[in-house]
Amino acid sequence: MLPFTSSGSKVTPRHHVSGYSNGYPRGSTFDISPHRFQPRGTASAYRSRRTQSFVRLAAVAAVLFLLILLSWSGSSALSIFSLGLLAHDQGFQLETTRYYDLSNVQGTARGWEREERILLCVPLRDAEAHLPMFFSHLRNFTYPHHLIDVAFLVSDSKDRTLEVLVEKMEEIQASEDDKMPFGEISIIEKDFGQVVNQDVESRHGFAAQAGRRKLMARARNWLLSAALRPYHSWVYWRDVDVETAPFTILEDLMRHNKDVIVPNVWRPLPEWLGGEQPYDLNSWQESETALALADTLDEDAVIVEGYAEYATWRPHLAYLRDPYGDPDMEMELDGVGGVSILAKAKVFRYGVHFPAFSFEKHAETEGFGKMARRMEFSVVGLPHYTIWHTYEPSVDDIKHMEQMEREKLAQEQAEKEKAEKAMKLKESFGDATGQWEKDKSDMQHIALEEKKETAAEAGAKNKAAAGEAEGEAEDKTGDKVIAGKDGEKDRKT
Amino acid sequence: MARPMGPVRLKKTSPATLAVGAALCIFILYFLIGSSSPDFSASRKATAAAHHLSPPTSPFRRSTGGGKPKPPPVARYNLNNVTITPDPLENRENILLLTPMARFYPEYWDNLLRLSYPHELITLGFILPKTKEGNTATTELQKRITKTQKYGPEKDRFKSIIILREDFEPPLSSQDESERHKMHNQKIRRAAMAKSRNSLLFSTLGPSTSWVFWLDADVVETPPSIIQDLARHDKPVVAPNCFQRYWNAEKKEMDERPYDFNNWQDSPNAQELAKQMGPDDILLEGYAEMATFRSLMAYMHRDDGHRHEEVPLDGVGGAALLVKADVHRDGAMFPAFPFYHLIETEGFAKMAKRLGWQPVGLPNYKVYHYNE
């Protein structure tokens, strides 16, 4: 509303208005006119001054308020200027609540298409030597790397396992190649106070098995419980000392869509031991004999497979391998080995774990298989799909190999000595031959001279010829001995 | 109204309007900032994970909006340094408070807010079924969470909160008291409950938890210092006594009665019963058809008894239970199958014992169950 109309007067003081009477402002002019009508719009100087000071006060108050707000909330000034809209771009915002629907992470046969996340669990102990090989496997996995979360448990290690691990993993995460970095990487340290020796003999000795397996089980459970997340669909257990495995192993196992699945595990051997051998004897089907045996044992006993002490007569996955068999063939199992296990995450979420106590007379991975069966999960093995464990020679093997090495060395030594002897012999005979030749020529010379002297002295000439023949014969015998020794060496090697 | 032949007045902004505008701006700013970023102290920010692929027991920095997302960092956790001591407050140990929830009781949440243990060390984990009832409960729960985590004072806000939804069909549609306690329904119901508890536990435990505190959604009253009080005992598994307040019509006053009968000491009778059972049968407590003659902690309560008196237990209930994280890490879980003829929390006690951890109960330390 215009000030004129609000004044209530219909009489417009056309010539006396100081302001906009002619349509444009004349703010700078000053008109002294005592009888002039003062419209309401031009407030008194006093009032205008009062409002202005009020505005200033309000502005100061506003700034103060903002400052107080700032200092009180501890928020950065930046978030004020960006009106909080950019707050999360700046990384200032904390999210404290997470919501997950577990029915979205059930695990299907074609997980890589449905972006299903896998947790790769690797228990480690003094494994520095195997790490380069393991990382080459890790880099080569064909399953999308960003969908694989990797968790390591390093326990009771006296070598540089941890340092090498961190270094190699950071290298992968910083890789230029977009397809190389993995998802969440957790490196977990926990020492269990390992009492059992880690060398092959004590590791696989029968007496040590129960305690060792229970300890391994604890380690596995600690790793899993610290690393399993609500967004995992699958869990893959992999030993660090696998030498050869297909790069597509995750997809290959996943395709079967089983709750728990293991491949066959063999190991290569040196020629003199037969070239190859079943390695993992923990994957088996239950047998009547074993069940009967289990009933006779006390509550805490643990049946371990592959030892003469417990003859279980169970069908083993390892022994059923046919190198030309169908790699997709499945076999139902009750116990599984831990070298390479692919399981749906829900198996672990529902509580199946690696018993660190005697569960139905089994512990660790075999107990895991048993417990999974108890909860009616499918547990299968692939007898003709094989991965290869590294060959670590046993103490006997090492002894044997040392023996072989010693023999070989002794052999070489003997051979060398023989060769030297032969050389010496030859040299001396060679000299002798020279001497003989010289003597012969001398004698011939003398003989010729003598011949010239008397043709009747035929007896002396005959004697010289006989001596020459004898020398040649001796030479030949020496050669024969050396050849004989060579032949012997060939046979031995 | 015809405008008089006056000047076209370009209206001058009134200073009063300016002031009002400025004030409004401040309020808008305040709410923009206040609502979009619940601000946390520097110490809380320091413990936050850098990536959303991280243990859910810690909050995370929301991923940056623009640019290529960076791969998660290599995270190292030394579990040798995770302490579990009788004085968790002093050592700033992390608590994981787990609750399987079918219904949301506001009293439950109010009780949580009253806990005197520093909330910045408590992570809450919930698991709810995917039913209509579960959806309702989830909505109500989320409302309360938002209220606390976004608008509440910082001391009320918990370190982080995980809400899970079950991935299996609930065995029973009805959660009615009478239906729920029918004996033949018990095995199926408790097997499902066990799966629920395990799913919650093993997907949230993470590498930094020291204690796991199980608190049922229908436990509506606990002493505010319950975490410190139970931890003080320094026992692998500690169960307080669960009671229920009710209106005693005879005495014409509020009274209380024992509620949870799953805390017990074994008896020869029960073991004899178990021997005669098939491998898939389970022993249940609190049913006349199955007289076990076990000593129930519920009846060991004495009004004049010492509050911190301990008794060893062979079976525990899940109403309230403080467990050292190591016990769960070793593999002690809630069997969803008959384990020594026991299931769920009772089976858990047995499994803990098989792993060498002895549960204890506190008959004179009470928590209260909701009265339906």
Would you write up a description of this structure?
The complex is a heterodimer of chains A (493) and B (372). Chain A is of the alpha/beta class. Chain A has helices at 3-6, 45-73, 77-81, 131-140, 161-173, 200-204, 209-227, 249-254, 288-296, 345-349, 364-374, 395-453, 458-492; strands spanning 94-95, 97-101, 117-124, 148-154, 185-189, 232-238, 242-244, 260-268, 276-278, 331-332, 340-344, 379-389. In chain A, strand 3, helix 4 (131-140) and strand 4 (148-154) form a beta-alpha-beta unit. Chain A starts with a helix and ends with a helix. Chain B has one domain: Spore Coat Polysaccharide Biosynthesis Protein SpsA, Chain A, CATH 3.90.550.10. With 372 residues, chain B is α/β, with parallel strands linked by helices. At the A-B interface, helix 1, helix 2, strand 1, strand 2 and helix 5 of A face helix 1, helix 2, strand 1, strand 2 and strand 5 of B.
Q: What is the residue-mean pLDDT of chain A, rounded to a whole number?
A: 79
Query: What class, by secondary structure content of chain A?
Result: alpha/beta
How many structural units, i.e. domains of chain B?
A: 1
Q: What is the N-to-C succession of helices and strands of chain B?
A: HHEEEHEHEHHEEHEEEHEEEHHE
Superfamily at the CATH H level of the largest domain in chain A? Answer: Spore Coat Polysaccharide Biosynthesis Protein SpsA, Chain A
- Unreliable parts of chain B: none
Please provide the count of β strands of chain B. 14
Shape of chain B: globular
Quaternary structure: heterodimer
Biggest sheet details of chain B = 10 strands, mixed
What is the average of the pLDDT values of chain B?
A: 87
Largest interface, C-beta within 8 A? A-B, 96 and 95 residues
The tally of helices of chain A reads 13
CATH architecture of the largest domain in chain A: Alpha-Beta Complex
Q: How many E strands of chain A?
A: 12
Organism (chain B): Achaetomium macrosporum
GO cellular component, one term (chain B): mannan polymerase complex
Region (Disordered) (chain B): 51-75
Family (chain B): Belongs to the ANP1/MMN9/VAN1 family.
